[in-house]
Amino acid sequence: MTRVTSTRIFCPGRLARRLLLAASLSLAAACMPAGTPPDGPTRAARATAPAMPAMKSFSSAHPQPSKRANADIARDFLDLSFQLESGRTLPRLTRFEAPIRVGLRGDAPAHMRRDLDRLLVRLRREAGLDIALAGTGETPNLTVAAISREDIRRFLPQAACFVVPGISRLSEYRNRRWTPETDWAQLAERRKVAIFVPSDAPPQEIRDCLQEELAQALGPLNDLYRLPDSVFNDDNVHAVLTGFDMLILRAYYAPELQSGMSRAQVARRLPAILARLNPPGENRPPRPLPPTPRAWINAMETALGRDVRADVRRRAARRAVAIARAEGWADHRAGFAHYALGRLLQAVDAQAARRHFDTADRIFTARPDTELHRAHLASHLAAHDIAVGNAGQALERIAPALVVAARAENAALMSTLMMLRAEALAMTRRVSEARSVRLDSLGWARYGFGPGGAVRAKLREIAALNPASRSGG
């Protein structure tokens, strides 16, 4: 999660997502007793590596409507829309005032086109946007360019994907990178925007980039850690646009607003807009969360950073936990800090890691808006249960988490939980059921993790958790 220090948005949240995904991948080495080799296929792993089935994908979205007060949503809207992630203030609202026509360039895999089509349907239906793929003879004003990860990292080493105004090709970005036309703060209206997405990443990472980058290309440019139910959050627990996000975009393109309006002008019109678009929110009492201190954000960015020494990351995570305690937080931000610290402690102090995971779980369990956070955490707790031979406890954790992961369209998390479930079932001698669940997990794993080699490595890793595989039984 590299901090944005200029007015060019390049999606720093992609790094946090990869680390959350990695948190679902690297389970075995952290959960096995000391001295147990995590690498190399065990007999159990070799016995459970079936041929790869066809990749599965999602067909229908299940967004949950926002359950917060309109007064709180209005505050979120303004803070999202009039500030960059660096903290720099934006002087005016900008949006597309013309119909949005999307062009797809580059070597886009078939699944990327399908996911883009699905997203455009959702944006029309749920956000009410006039958005579609550009037809014959139409010039796109929003371009999605599929390029290699190497090309992306050549420009922005910490980004998985990024969005830039004023251009439609990567070659234009080379020449205009530091000019006013690619500076969000100097725009008067959005007339041309380009999104650069990795064509050679796993399908889910490509889909997630499409979701967040399109949302930022169309609407707010900021992310807020205080949002528990949004992709506009650098914790990236949510991979696809939520009901809250669609409400924000619908309000962003309300006829009462237009490009060039100041924060004060938007603030005056926003209550009536939200009352019209979200009537249930009028009757809910405000419960505003306190602002997130920059010191906590900086600590989390270091803790989740790539190319940062492990001991530096652990110290940063401890600072984030300490700040959360000093602030008196009991919301998802406190839980996320404990979760991140637990992840970083797994390899050096498994017992301390488990304590932080348990603390995070208590925080997430106490709140109705953090079930997806808890589902991510469940993969770690279930892995620990399996490693110590408590298959029954693992199965209890996994069942509700799987439902949540499926509703959130997180195939990587789904397949991880299913592989863990298969291992737990095998430990309870439900071999036939375990085989069926494991096979079912593979199609989702191909969407979540990519090529068959990555899927098989994941199978081996989870099989290595089973005490029987470590003992040679």
In CATH, the topology of the largest domain is named Serine Threonine Protein Phosphatase 5, Tetratricopeptide repeat
Query: CATH-wise, what's the superfamily of the largest domain?
Result: Tetratricopeptide repeat domain
Examine the secondary-structure arrangement and name the CATH architecture of the largest domain: Alpha Horseshoe
| Largest sheet strand order | 2-1-3-5-4
Unreliable segments (pLDDT under 50, ≥5 consecutive)? Answer: 1-25, 32-48
Cα separation of the termini: 42 Å
Biggest sheet record:
5 strands, mixed
Structural class label: mainly alpha
The CATH class designation of the largest domain is Mainly Alpha
Instruction: Spell out the helices and strands N to C.
Output: HHHHEHEEHEHEHHHHHHHHHHHHH
Shape by Cα distribution: globular
Number of domains: 2
The DSSP helix count reads: 20
Report the mean per-residue pLDDT as an integer: 88
Estimate percent helicity.
Answer: 40-55%
Number of strand elements: 5
SS strand fraction? 5-15%
> Mind telling me the C-alpha Rg?
22 Å
